[in-house]
């Protein structure tokens, strides 16, 4: 009798927990856009595009969204006979939604136009808000290496930290502001993907000095 009473009390709680867990897993599997909760920790040396994609895939898989093909939103510059790669050509056609189910863009045109990316929607794979301007520490600088339309910069002046292989005082990476906030009220300050280059190199310390942490955007390409 006592055991029966205990079960009658515990059963609704267990069923609610199971339902919430199933809902969270379904939401994770529907996620097609996130900001990395952490980078590899070596500044802008991500191990090239392959290493960055692997980081996206591993973070997504850890929360049950590994069924998608994940790509980092990063461009590379032409180098040593290899052509440039445009970030916009790596991420599929959309639509893309965050861990909470909010659609941030329907397609590439909207993504590079009037999208819904801001501090409240550019969430991590865990559905968490990333610190922005005014928070301590500020982590709003996202690695992109891209121009506002999602294309690569011309060869010459480094804007990709050696195509995501540098972590020292040499080079620079173009950064975007996930919170759409900066020092000025102008287009670059409000840009999610092309706000300003890093200063002082490509190390973790250099990225942190301007309000970053080696984070980047991940999109499901399928």
Approximately how much beta-strand content do the residues carry?
A: 5-15%
Radius of gyration: 19 Å
The overall average pLDDT, rounded, is: 90
The largest sheet is: 6 strands, mixed
Query: Which regions have little confidence, pLDDT < 50, spanning 5+ residues?
Result: 4-26
H/I helix tally: 6
Ends apart, CA distance between termini: 54 Å
Counted beta strands? 8
Helix share bin: 25-40%
What kind of assembly state do the chains in view correspond to? single chain
Structural class: alpha+beta
Mind explaining what this structure looks like?
By secondary structure, the protein is of the alpha+beta class. It has helices spanning 2-30, 48-62, 108-111, 161-164, 187-190, 204-209, and strands at 33-35, 70-72, 96-97, 103-105, 141-143, 174-177, 196-197, 212-220. Strands 1, 2, 5, 6, 7 and 8 form a six-stranded mixed sheet that branches. The chain has a two-stranded antiparallel sheet with strand order 3-4. Strand 3 and strand 4 (103-105) form a beta hairpin. Residues 4-26 have low confidence and may be disordered.
